[in-house]
């Protein structure tokens, strides 16, 4: 390319960089603002180690399902059945473990397989029969809500084996001698994670630079890395001073990393976005659009099953009402996180931030003693507001 | 004679980019005024200023219409005065009838209840005015694009129209429909309606225009009174692109080798009406280094033929043999067709060719992700290099490869689509209307690319409705009508008359009129 284009991009660089990042990090900043707000008005309760640990536990299943829902939404579909499926899987798990005394690993795997089968059944109608996903999953929502009731015969079923409960209420084992209330293993993992994040982003940046690719200005990069590392360290410090890292947080973090990688860097991720962006063009480019749509639903089924297990383990009982309304929180999380209802647009990070915004608001408002009635009103308005801001930004 | 419309010293800029500079533009009553220029020359911007899409105050200059200065706040203000704009993308609702579409906004009604008799009576009148013999009940989706365009004009006439603005009305029409449309314009001229015709087709402009204004980079660069001086296409083209275009088609010496694609006894049925045979046992071949044109009217089955070859992406019960470099191939899917070395560049790049919200880079690599993704993980640096390479090779004008393709001009979008298919390294490329909606300069570049492809030993098939284009670039032209080949001409011996005659002779023997997409394949031999 010519010198002219280089100098042109040089001029645009700072302006376009700030503009792009406002869009990418806008929701993250909102999350931080919301957290600070509740931290102040709750008199510091929000970020107390105990409450923070609870916050993680309470929202883990929403985050897990949001990862699957994001992919479904990116392909231009929706899944309304996830709450019912999660509840149904919890019921199946209870029947297997409590009544039939099946080994918990075996039951766990069986439940994930049932989730995959449910996803496949729904995905089949959507992908190959072209029935609108709204209708298929609305049907699924009713079917699995009913099946959960049937399987449990209208009763609550529990308790689960102690090892299974550890999935939600357990913490990683402490390998090092404890230092007061601080759990050193957890702290160590947090520190390694923080360093790892900074190292990989620095490596990626220098690799791009060595190929003459435009990178973010150094000051931005440095500031971002320091902030990120501090946030991770502070967060782990808080968590570690209660009972250490919860098992479910480890699972959640691993899944977020996995799905982030799949969406940004793999062929299948790229193809999923292409299907959502323009299904006809994607199919004429040799992409098997039906199969990809089918697979996103299978994936959603598995994650809904996992979420159902986590939720059941946390309550330590399976109830017919479990999972009620989860789909709304999950879908809201994706849209607050910037996914487009028309498909083709959305980020894993966005969906996670969206889920955390919902979670922090739930938690903060509960601490303040705001009734469930007004909590719903406020959450609804936040969803509408977030999407309005996004639409406004894209029009500019 | 005072002008019906006068736009004085109009300037308009967007975020520092000057789209119009001191444009002066006049249209008289009963005049067809052609507005020509490359894409991005400012034609659409000027029309948006005129119709009030850009309200008064957002531009500089004055608009005088029928003797008074006008300050339109929005498009309703200009419509109230009878300035009606018909956009390139038709704004009809496909699943509503002709009558419902025409009277969509203000149906004649009594006490809020639609007066159906009155609607039908007036619809019939309007359809007669535009020369359309269809029932007012016919759904828009059952009409061909040509007839839809006429419905759009009938809709304009249902309002009090003083000035009609047509933005590339014939871009997606075949020759017969284009001629019919242009004839309508001539009758409006007699009724004293002023028309502004935006078009890339200079032969049409030459046929109907009373006056031609040429825009380039937001300025008026030429103004030709067609009654005072003869129209010279070369003069218009050179003022549009500001370079002397001695040849509209690049020179080429063909080096034709052995056959690369052989199709025998190919037959395809309609996917929705499986009893209709759309492609009727045709034979077709392309040689290495050869550019083969497929001529025909819209609805002749050319696109359907090409897509059925390309991994059966159109039609059902496809039969026949397909050989690539002499080897018999079965291509059940698009992926298989790409692997075998076939590429199909669609006629509809926005709907079927590109992901407009994605950047140039992602669009280029979409069909060949395997090349840049060892172990299914995308190597983003390799991807960037490939994309930048195509960007400079194909001279794609974009700020960088991260720019959204939706923001590029038609010609540059087409180059992105071509890059995507070149990256798959095809043996045979089928280009369906490769220059539709593209300005003259970009067309020339596309022709050069086609030549380079043939010189590199690939077989190239060009489907086009513009006959001069086929005559200019092809070594051989096959004429398709009603799902079969009805004529074949070697490059030097082909003329527009011969091609048209081959089609018309076949039309008569079939006893059918001009086929529309909706009626396609309806008549069996």
From TrEMBL, chain A:
PANTHER family: ABC TRANSPORTER PERMEASE PROTEIN YPHD-RELATED-RELATED (PTHR32196), XYLOSE TRANSPORT SYSTEM PERMEASE PROTEIN XYLH (PTHR32196:SF32). Coiled coil: none annotated. It is found in: Cell membrane. Pfam families: BPD_transp_2. This is Xylose transport system permease protein XylH. The chain crosses the membrane at residues 22-43, 55-73, 80-100, 106-127, 134-152, 181-199, 219-239, 245-262, 292-312, 324-345, 352-371. It is a multi-pass membrane protein. Keywords: Cell inner membrane, Cell membrane, Membrane, Sugar transport, Transmembrane, Transmembrane helix, Transport. Part of the binding-protein-dependent transport system for D-xylose. Probably responsible for the translocation of the substrate across the membrane.
TrEMBL record, chain B:
It comes from the Bacteria. The keyword Phosphoprotein does not apply. Keywords: ATP-binding, Cell membrane, Membrane, Nucleotide-binding, Repeat, Sugar transport, Translocase, Transport. CDD domains: ABC_Carb_Monos_I, ABC_Carb_Monos_II. Gene3D superfamilies: P-loop containing nucleotide triphosphate hydrolases. Residues 5-242, 261-507 form the ABC transporter domain. SUPFAM superfamilies: P-loop containing nucleoside triphosphate hydrolases. The keyword Metal-binding does not apply. InterPro entries: AAA+_ATPase, ABC_carbohydrate_import_ATPase, ABC_transporter-like_ATP-bd, ABC_transporter-like_CS, L-arabinose_ABC_transporter, P-loop_NTPase. GO terms for molecular function: ATP binding. SMART domains: AAA. Belongs to the ABC transporter superfamily. Involved in beta-(1-->2)glucan export. Transmembrane domains (TMD) form a pore in the inner membrane and the ATP-binding domain (NBD) is responsible for energy generation. This is Sugar ABC transporter ATP-binding protein. It comes from Bradyrhizobium diversitatis.
């Amino acid at each position: 390319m010519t010198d002219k284009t280089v100098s042109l991009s040089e001029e645009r660089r700072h302006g376009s960089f700030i503009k792009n990042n406002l869009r990418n990090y806008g929701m993250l900043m909102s999350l931080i603002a919301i957290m600070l707000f509740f931290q102040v008005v709750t008199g510091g309760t929000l970020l107390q180690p105990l409450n923070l640990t609870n916050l993680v536990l309470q929202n883990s299943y929403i985050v897990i399902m949001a990862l699957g829902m994001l992919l479904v939404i990116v392909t231009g579909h929706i899944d309304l059945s996830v709450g019912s499926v999660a509840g149904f899987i919890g019921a199946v798990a209870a029947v297997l473990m409590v009544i039939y005394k099946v080994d918990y690993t075996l039951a766990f795997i069986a439940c994930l397989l049932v989730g995959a089968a449910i996803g496949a059944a729904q995905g089949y109608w959507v992908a190959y029969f072209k029935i609108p996903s709204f209708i298929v999953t609305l049907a699924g929502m009713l079917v699995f809500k009913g099946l959960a009731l049937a399987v449990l015969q209208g009763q609550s079923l529990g308790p689960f084996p102690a090892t299974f409960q550890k999935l939600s209420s357990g913490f990683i084992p402490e390998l090092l001698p404890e230092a007061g209330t601080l759990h050193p293993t957890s702290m160590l993992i947090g520190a390694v994670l923080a360093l790892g994040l900074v190292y990989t982003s620095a490596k990626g940046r220098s690799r791009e630079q060595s190929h003459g690719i435009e990178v973010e200005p150094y000051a931005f990069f440095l500031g971002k890395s320091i902030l990120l590392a501090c946030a991770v360290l502070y967060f782990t410090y808080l968590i570690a001073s209660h009972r250490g890292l919860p098992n479910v947080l480890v699972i959640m973090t691993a899944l977020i990393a996995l799905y982030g990688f799949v969406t940004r860097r793999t062929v299948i991720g790229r193809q999923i976005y292409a299907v959502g962006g323009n299904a006809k063009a994607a199919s004429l480019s040799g992409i098997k659009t039906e199969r990809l749509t089918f697979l996103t639903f299978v994936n959603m089924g598995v994650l809904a099953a996992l979420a159902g297990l986590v939720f059941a383990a946390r309550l330590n009982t399976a109830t017919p009402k479990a999972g009620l309304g989860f789909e709304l929180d999950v879908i809201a999380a994706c849209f607050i996180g910037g996914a487009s209802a028309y498909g083709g647009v959305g980020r894993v990070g966005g969906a996670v931030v969206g889920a955390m915004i919902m979670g922090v608001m739930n938690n903060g408002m509960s601490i303040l003693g705001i009734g469930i009635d007004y909590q719903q009103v406020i959450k609804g308005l936040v969803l509408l507001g977030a999407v309005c801001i996004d639409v406004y930004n894209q029009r500019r | 004679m005072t002008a019906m419309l006068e736009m004085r010293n109009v300037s308009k800029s967007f975020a520092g980019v000057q789209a119009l500079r001191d444009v002066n533009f006049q249209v008289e009553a009963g005049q067809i005024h052609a507005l020509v220029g490359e894409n991005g020359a400012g034609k659409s911007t000027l029309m948006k200023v005129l119709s009030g899409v850009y309200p008064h105050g957002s531009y500089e200059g004055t608009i005088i219409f029928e003797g008074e200065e006008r300050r339109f706040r929005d498009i309703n203000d200009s419509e109230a005065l009878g300035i009606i704009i018909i956009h390139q993308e038709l704004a009809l609702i496909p699943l509503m009838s002709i009558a419902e579409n025409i009277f969509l906004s203000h149906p004649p009604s009594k006490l809020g209840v639609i007066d159906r008799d009155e609607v039908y009576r007036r619809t019939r009148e309007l359809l007669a005015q535009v020369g359309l013999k269809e029932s007012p009940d016919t759904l828009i989706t059952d009409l061909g694009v040509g007839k839809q365009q006429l419905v759009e004009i009938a809709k304009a006439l249902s309002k009090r129209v003083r000035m009609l603005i047509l933005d590339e009305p014939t871009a997606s029409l075949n020759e017969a429909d284009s001629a019919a449309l242009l004839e309508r314009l001539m009758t409006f001229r007699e009724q004293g309606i002023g028309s502004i015709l935006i078009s890339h087709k200079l032969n049409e402009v030459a046929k109907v225009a009373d006056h031609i204004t040429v825009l380039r980079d937001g300025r008026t660069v030429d103004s030709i009174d067609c009654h005072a001086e003869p129209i010279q296409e070369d003069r218009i083209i050179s003022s549009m692109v500001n370079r002397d275009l001695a040849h509209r088609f690049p020179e080429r010496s063909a080096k034709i080798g052995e056959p690369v694609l052989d199709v025998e006894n190919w037959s395809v049925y309609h996917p929705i009406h499986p009893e209709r045979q759309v492609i009727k046992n045709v034979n077709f071949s392309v040689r290495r280094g050869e550019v083969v044109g497929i001529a025909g009217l819209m609805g002749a089955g050319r696109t359907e033929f090409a897509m059925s070859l390309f991994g059966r992406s159109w039609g059902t019960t496809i039969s026949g043999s397909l050989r690539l470099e002499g080897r018999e191939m079965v291509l059940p899917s698009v992926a298989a067709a790409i692997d075998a070395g076939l590429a199909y560049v669609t006629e509809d790049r926005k709907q079927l060719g590109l992901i407009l919200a994605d950047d140039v880079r992602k669009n280029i690599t979409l069909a060949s992700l395997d090349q840049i993704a060892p172990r299914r993980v995308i190597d983003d640096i390799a991807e960037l290099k490939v994309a930048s390479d195509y960007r400079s090779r194909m001279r794609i004008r974009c700020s960088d490869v991260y720019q959204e393709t939706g923001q590029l001009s038609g010609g540059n979008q087409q180059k992105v689509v071509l890059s995507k298919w070149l990256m798959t390294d095809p043996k045979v490329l089928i280009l369906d209307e490769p220059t539709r909606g593209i300005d003259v300069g970009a067309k020339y570049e596309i022709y050069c690319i086609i030549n380079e492809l043939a010189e590199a030993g690939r077989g190239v098939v060009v489907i086009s409705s513009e006959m001069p284009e086929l005559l200019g670039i092809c070594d051989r032209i096959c004429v398709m009508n009603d799902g079969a080949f009805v004529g074949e001409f070697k490059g030097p011996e082909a003329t527009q008359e011969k091609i048209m005659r081959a089609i018309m002779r076949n039309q008569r023997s079939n006893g059918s009129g001009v086929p529309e997409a909706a009626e396609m394949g309806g008549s069996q031999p």
